Amino acid sequence: MLLKGEFTPEEKRTFNLHLGYSLIEGVILGVLALNEFVFIKSLHGSNYQLGVLFQFSMVVFLFLFFINEFIKRYQNKKKLLRLTGIATRGPLFLLLFFPATDHTLLGTSVFHYLFLLIFFIYYFGNTVIYPLINLFLKNNYRHEKFGSLYSYATSVNKIVMLIATFLYGLLLDIDHHAYRYIFPFVAVLGVISVFLLSLIHFEEEVTERVRSFSDSVKRSAKTMMTILRGNKPYFHFEGGFMLYGFSFMITVTVITIFFDRALNLNYSSVAFYKNAYNILAIILLPFTGKLLGRIDPRKFAVITFGSLMLFILFVMLTEFFPVHYAVAGIDIYLMLTLAYLFYGIFAATMALLWFIGSAYFCKPGEAGDYQSVHLFLTAARALFAPLLGVFFYELAGFTFTFSLAIVSLLASIILMVWSYSKDRSGKDFNSNVIADQ
Asked: Which fold has domain 9-202?
């Protein structure tokens, strides 16, 4: 694709490869958007197994300390990228050999555990692939061009994802076991997309490591503790995120169960709601991006946590006020529609807060360390929260689980308001934080 404006030949070549990767990944992410619903509706996985499936997507970040150091020390990073692509995307091809009958799937848990293992391997690959993507792009895009090129590729990725989710949902309504031949196709696409990335020009920096591998990992852990102890505003921010994350993770699996057991939604309906909130998020992102640039991230977090709280509230109310109508095979619930309007706001704000919120609490050179702390804490709560949500649901039902999440989100909002009000000046927030370090 030809770029308009002043771009270097290397930037154009890199962007074409980056865009190709984004297009292919859009298809893959569109398929994965329905993965948990496929697991419970088509494969008849148990509630706890469903919790583990979501858990795997987050808990892999616990290995970041080790993987980041491993990546730094690995000399041929292009080769590492290709090997990771084959090793972690290739196993998806095994789903071709899964049985196509409900009777067989209900009679044994072997295929459920194999499904979980395949996707643990897939998600583990992201811990290597995502850091290398950023590394390759940062080495080829100039700083002033990085944002525009990256955002354009991301926008294309989102549009393709929406189309893929919609078409996959329609296909699954025709054949509940369509995942058997879709995922082998996804496996091939996944390997191709990673190989495209490996074609991006990258010059290895040969550096001599003074510290041993174990010493470097220990130093990273020590840095994390120093950050949390020494930067109180950031500590409060992550405390709010722990309360939010607990709420999100105990409900994400339970909501999937709710869609299947309480509302009996088909695949097209689930795809409709997921696409609706994503479209709203895409529309709102330019506005939320400007807002985050003007206000303290803790004030911004109040909007994020509050919109998720209202989403969960209206999902809960759907059980008590199940007013709905069918349009072209899609069940449109009034309360669920309101819920996903708020989820669109949540998605548009969390997309920014989760990835760059930490950077507001530190000096530019420390952003990587702060984001590593953020990712590690995300993985830490993923160790228990998803399965705890299933436990609460099986113990006391949907309403109790959703109410618990709402209370936790309310606590996170109160913490953010208290932390912000404790600072003397919101206007000088960034400079005050840096000065205190």
From this structure: Growth Hormone; Chain: A; (1.20.1250)
